[in-house]
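Worked example 4.2. Below are the chains of a multi-component assembly; read each line carefully before continuing.
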Amino acid sequence: MKKIDYSLWLIRMSQGDEEAFRTVYEVTRDHAYRLIYYLSPSKEDVGDIMSEVYIELLRSAEKYRPEQSFISWFNGLIVRQVRNWKRKSWRHFRIVEKVKMLADVPFDRKAEARLSTISDQMELLPILRTLPHKAREVVVLRYYQDCSLEEIADMLNIPIGTVKSRHHHALRQLRNRFDEIDGGKERTGYVY
Amino acid sequence: MSIEQKLAEAFKCNESSLECPPSLDTRIMAEYDRMAMNTRRNSIMKKKLSMPKVAIIALVVAVLCGFAYSGTKFLYSDSKGHFSIRLQSNEAFTLDSGTLEKVRNSIKAVQEQLAPGETAVVYYPEVFSQLPIDIPVIGVSNLQYIFDAQQWKAVLEEYDVTETVPESLLAGAYEFEAGAVNSPFYPMTGLDTMDLLDEMKVEKKNMNEDKPLWRLTDISTFPEHSVYTSVYRDTNGEALYFIWQVFNDSSMKVESFTSPSTEYVEFDLNSKKVHYVKNNESLFGESTVLQSMMWIEEKDNGTIVYSIETDSVNMTKEKLIEAVKSLP
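Applying the procedure described above to all two chains together yields the following structure tokens:
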């Protein structure tokens, strides 16, 4: 993500400054999209979760403290919104509302699907999606965001022991599944 | 190459091909415009009416069809952190003894058909149509009890619950017996509740029998596993249930109704505001009498609603008070 003085832009954003929202959005959108893509239970939900993330960013902008790392704070917000997405009781109703509201706005699902296909050429990442959500969170934050296990524990508000346990089990599962696929290719003579 | 290196490499290679599509930009900005408009409208309203701002991600336990029921008596309300509750009584929520027994028997019959850990949504319009509720279903659960204390603690840790499970209550008089996810008295149901209700309504139309319909529900789709029950029992077989409802990121507002025969008292115990409720028409449990002591606490990472409950007819209010006071 490009480096900007987030605290000033977030203050302006919380006061209703549209330019501030646009600026923060443009700088963070690709990062948010990728992180949500890896964390979300389903690729089809990425757009909806992204929308929820920026609504929450708008609501909680005034709570950002300048001494915090913006990336960590923003990542925590994204992680919580992905979790909320799984839990919200009224999400079906919101989707219906949004579809009605955005009926005039073209939403290019085909472009999204094309991008998904390209990204799934890497075999390990589809296997990642088979992990339980809590395990996937740890793997994505550790190997995509390069967070230490302590940082992950802090972000997810769980004991470091729990992070280590999830990390260990997740890698074991990934290793086993990847070996099964790799072994299968050798047996069937798969050639790249 | 180790799996760790493969993962880091896979993410790195994938990054350039994964970009936010422009159509999403349009959608997000449209959402921003909508919110900005609402904020402007609300700030004008706020100045005029001084309306308190309430963020609701709500579950309504029982929704009145219209609010103007005469004879409604306010019992209590409480609100802290992510949880708020209001309990009122109204004659309309009284079940006669015949109906009460019918419903309790139906619930038991459904429970016997559920495997441990399963929860069902039960539709019984012949009975529920008598009550002024919008959503005529009830959750019924066959809890999967874990009888080993260490295993129960490990399960709680898996769900990121950091609360300490007491080894006993009332200075050892009630020993830990088992733990389970969900509540034996107010089972949570899943997000699929409304879809299941629609299915059962269609099936009911083709039936001529006066019996409940039920469907299995997936509770993992709702504030998942946010209710935990630890059971304690004395040598006479009487049980106390120590129940935690945990709210981290979600919020809940409960509007609850009961019959006028329900007793309520507020206590101040260990500097906590504790709500004592005695419901004489309980649908769940070993008896029709359900007593509970409930309080709410805000924690660093959320809100927990604690309750000590019992379906034992011999349990006294005073003993429940002692049970709350004896907690660490």
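Take a moment to check your reading of the output against the notes. Chain A has ten helices and no strands. The radius of gyration of chain A is 19 Å.
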